[in-house]
Amino acid sequence: MGSFLLRIVVIRNALLTLVAGQEVFDSPVRLMHITDSHISLANEAPPRSSRMHAAFSRSRNRETNAFTTPAQEFSRLVNLARDWNVDLVVLGGDILNFPSNRTMMWVLEQLRLTGKDFIFTSGNHDWLLEGQRGAARYDADRVSELSSTFRPFYEQSVSSVSSCYNNLGYWDRPGIGILYGCAVVKGLLLLFVDNSNFQVDSDQLEFVRVQLSNVAANVPVVVLLHIPLMLPGMKLPPKELCGHQHWGAATDVLWQVEDRPRWPSGNLQSTLDFRELIQAHAAPGPIVALLSGHTHEDAAVALSPEERCANGTWTVRSEGGRERVEASGALQYTTHTAAEGAYRLLTIY
Ligand SMILES: *[C@@H]1O[C@H](CO)[C@@H](O)[C@H](O)[C@H]1NC(C)=O
Ligand SMILES: *[C@@H]1O[C@H](CO)[C@@H](O)[C@H](O)[C@H]1NC(C)=O
Fold this sequence. Notes:
8 helices; 349 residues; hydrolase activity; six-stranded mixed β-sheet; Purple Acid Phosphatase, chain A, domain 2
């Protein structure tokens, strides 16, 4: 009962402040999406951190093919965000290679030096230190890591500011501002949902439902996830997608490599309902774009099931990805790994 009441209050606050704090959409809005950097400054917790640290100890810049490091590329990208004067840096998860306070502080310092506002949603590697076969669940450390190691990310993110709700959730029961949240950027509403465990729970679903059913007609919405939604046209295995019909214990190919408990048997109903909700509100509804990462590959696919190529009110231009896209219907964008210096610049106008 207590938590039910808390949820009502949190959601009502979300509603009141969103309506009260409405700004006029100040076109254009430019978002720089940086995802899957996989930064680890050191192999801090061997042997459990060794595999991931070795996998990303150096990389190659995908444009120049020169050797580089994920950290060097991250600095370069946030400096570009400053030079280009983007409105918001959108961090899509797996920015860290495994949980580390040292790496977390370094990343925040890079952002602070540029003076750029940012928003963050976590990825599956941010909170996973491999080698926990004895844990109760595959995502056992997610909430505890997000509310300890990653707490400064959420506190310094624009999602902690009360344009959509009055305050961050409780740290012992993370919810608003951590597992889901929003920010208003020049009149554009950006919603994030942490699906780094491949699922969307009923609180997250309810939050997004309330936001979408109350958004004013002149407010475009961008949704941020770590793991892309399974949509028609996405031909990837369950480990790459959220809502894949075969996701579950039988298709969990990494549990031994990552040395953790297996995924449960299948998707939550709320995950499938979330996808339906997003599709139902895609342009010409309010949602103009969905940003995701996780796969380390560029992609852009239609959000609407029937690919109606709808004429929305707004246009979204995407640059930086391998494909240059200009769309008035809503697309799900997946952005190549920033460990190789990739990014996506979305302009909504
Ligand atoms: C980071 O520091 C916090 C606060 O001291 C602590 O709770 C957390 O466990 C630390 N994280 C890691 C990965 O060591
Ligand atoms: C979108 O607009 C263009 C140009 O105005 C028009 O030719 C096209 O038929 C429209 N498409 C839809 C699906 O309404």
